């Protein structure tokens, strides 16, 4: 009996083994909640990218003749205390909120993965020194640490991004370290060492690709947390400064009028909620799709 006989597909071609990427994509497509989150997030990002082209009014131009206007055909989301169109400010403000979330988490993930890889692979003194620094950073909750850093550096978009980046590095370091420790003694790493692969190549080609699954989920969830942190910092005056719009700053500006003009805070709060919800839905879907223990 020929044990190496290939299985033929209906068309006569050899059946191809399903790749991991195809399996992940198939699982994602079958997850309706994840696809809904991806669709909503994509729509919000497109709105942010093309914001200046689709915003009906200027986000900073005041119109004192139309202050506190309720939602109408002329101003679908109403106007604020200076007569500025809330819908336009939400559209333009999405750029700042998403930029803070994406840039800060991208920076935190890159630095955290590099440091975590060094800790997990080398261990010893390198691990001890880096992890003790991480313990110092984690002595405070991430949001409190971000507020302290931004208060020391001064308010503004760039300082807000830097503060949130620094405050989220320890979580990526610890997760990467744990993943690397789990796969450091695998047989394929011993084989790579036996053929004299360099340390950098082993980490980049053999360790990180097998440790990325939980990090991708952490990154997605972290963007949602970063957007909430950015909104909180803008709410207390440490984030994006007026007259530039940002969802948290719009909440802060409208909180004094919530009883008489609730539309001034309703729409900005709703946008934060929808964005964070879509990211969480996408993150849950990615976690399920990347879990090797799940069966199709």
Structure explained in plain terms:
The chain has helices at 20-30, 32-49, 51-54, 86-122, 124-137, 142-153, 157-183, 187-194, 199-235, 247-254, 263-290. With 296 residues, it is an all-alpha fold.
List the defining traits of the structure above.
single chain, 296 residues, mainly alpha, MetI-like fold, 11 helices, 69% helix
What does the secondary structure layout of this molecule look like, with pairings?
Layout: H1 20-30, H2 32-49, H3 51-54, H4 86-122, H5 124-137, H6 142-153, H7 157-183, H8 187-194, H9 199-235, H10 247-254, H11 263-290
Helix pairs in contact: 1-11, 2-4, 2-11, 4-5, 4-7, 4-9, 5-7, 6-7, 7-9, 8-9, 9-10, 9-11, 10-11
Per CATH, the architecture is Orthogonal Bundle
Assigned CATH superfamily: MetI-like
Assign an overall shape. elongated
What's the number of helices? 11
Total number of strands: 0
Largest beta-sheet details: none
Distance between termini?
A: 31 Å
Instruction: Report the β-strand fraction as a percent range.
Output: under 5%
* Order of helical and strand elements: HHHHHHHHHHH
Structural class: mainly alpha
Helix content: 55-70%
Total domains, how many? 1
